[in-house]
Design goal:
Layout: H1 2-25, H2 27-34, H3 41-46, H4 51-72, H5 77-86, H6 90-97, H7 107-124, H8 126-138, H9 142-149, H10 159-190, H11 194-201, H12 211-247, H13 251-271, E1 275-288, E2 295-301, E3 308-311, H14 331-336, E4 344-351, E5 353-354, E6 358-359, H15 366-371, E7 374-384
Parallel strand pairs: 3-7
Antiparallel strand pairs: 1-2, 1-4, 2-3, 4-7, 5-6
């Protein structure tokens, strides 16, 4: 309903704009048109019969509706982009999918579709893109050249020529804009736009005064991106199990999905060596026992549809033999002392193997295990987002 209202408001704005222009020329004409509306609306607009009132009523209304309309009627970039993608309208797909918010539950799928759409769009417009890049190069617009050629397919007949032009443009940009490039990369890093950081700093010259800083930033970005890809893989798959479990028609099929999820989880733990590094989440619980000898810590992530908690045990008795609760004076305890519940953090941890669930998890029911799993881990590092 709200979306329909928003769509209506967006539709009304151009009409009000036309009435505003007519009203400024001949106020009485607009007044006579609008008074035909049902009262009290018609009665109100009949009194808007001079230029000052027209400007006040219609002008202010246009501005407000231009602000409110899009807010009430958010553009469904993912659905629209996917429709363009299915129609093989690559330009439309790229335009919409690139605007999908990182908070959107479809963000991961949008990134996959966007990558394919960009490549296909480039294939269709290869000669045109190369020509535009050459023109930008001649005009010494190095960033434009890089933007145009960065997604060029690797197996195109023009790829060799493109790569040479792209390399030259990057070298020229670094020579003239080295400091600006590093600053832009820092901004992209803060925005967690790892692809942008990699794009900006890839090929940074070895003899530039900022080379060490650029290399450190690039290395860190790639490491974080690599680890977050693993987190994304884990959490998207766990979410798919949750959805399948919810949709299953009976307990037999639900239990089969639960078993499959546990087996996959165990294989994932084995694949990553029972360790996770620099994953991202929010501190949900940070508390100590009486006297502050040991710490209870819980970090959650819910980016891909399912809330997943990574946490210690919550009492010393349950923790006997597990050793998940950091003790006073330990590295994790001291790091946590500088943080608060609600903080966004990067964390590393050891996973605890489970014969039943793959990775140690405390839910008592199948639905709890898949709907909101609580994995027990031994934290090895925790750092604030910035």
């Amino acid at each position: 309903m709200i979306r329909l209202l928003g769509d209506f408001l967006v539709f009304v704005v151009p009409i009000l704009g036309i009435l505003l222009i007519i009203g400024l020329i001949k106020p009485s004409l607009v007044s006579n048109i609008m008074k035909r509306l049902p009262d009290p609306i018609g009665e109100f607009f009949e009194k808007v019969n001079n230029r000052k009132k027209v400007l006040l009523v219609y002008g202010v209304s246009c501005v407000l509706l231009m602000i409110i309309g899009p807010t009430l009627s958010p553009v469904e970039y993912f659905e629209t982009g996917k429709q363009y993608y299915e129609k093989e309208d690559w330009a439309g797909a790229v335009n919409n999918l690139s605007k999908v918010s990182t908070d959107d539950e479809n963000y991961a799928e949008a990134l996959e579709l966007l990558s394919v759409a960009k490549e296909n769009r480039t294939r269709e417009q290869a000669e045109e893109i190369l020509s535009g890049a050459k023109t930008s190069f001649e005009e010494k617009k190095w960033s434009e050249v890089i933007d145009l050629l960065s997604d060029f397919p690797k197996d195109h007949s023009l790829t060799k020529e493109v790569n040479k032009l792209l390399t030259n443009a990057k070298e020229k940009r670094f020579e003239e804009e080295g400091e600006e490039v590093v600053e832009n990369a820092k901004m992209a890093f803060e925005e967690k736009n790892w692809d942008k950081v990699n794009e900006l700093l890839s090929g940074f010259p070895k003899d530039h005064p900022l080379t060490n800083e650029a290399n450190t930033l690039l290395k860190t970005s790639k490491e974080i991106q690599k680890n977050l890809v693993l987190q994304e893989e884990f959490e998207i798959k766990r979410n798919s199990f949750r959805e399948a479990y919810s949709d299953a028609p009976n307990e037999i099929k639900k239990s089969a999905i639960w078993v499959e999820a546990n087996e996959w989880t165990g294989e994932f733990g084995k694949k990553c060596g029972w360790k996770i590094n620099n994953w991202y989440g929010t501190i949900e619980d940070l508390s100590t026992d009486q006297g502050g000898d040991v710490l209870t810590l819980s970090i959650s992530s819910r980016k891909f549809g399912t809330r997943i908690d990574y946490e210690t045990m919550n009492n010393w008795f349950s923790d006997m033999g597990e050793n998940t609760m950091p003790k006073k004076g330990s590295k994790i305890y001291d790091q946590a002392a500088e943080l608060s519940e609600g903080d966004y953090v990067y964390f590393s941890a050891e996973l605890i193997q489970s014969s039943q669930k793959g990775i140690r998890e405390t839910s008592l029911t199948e639905s709890g295990s898949l709907g909101s799993p609580e994995f027990i881990v031994r934290f090895t590092d925790i750092r604030p987002e910035k």
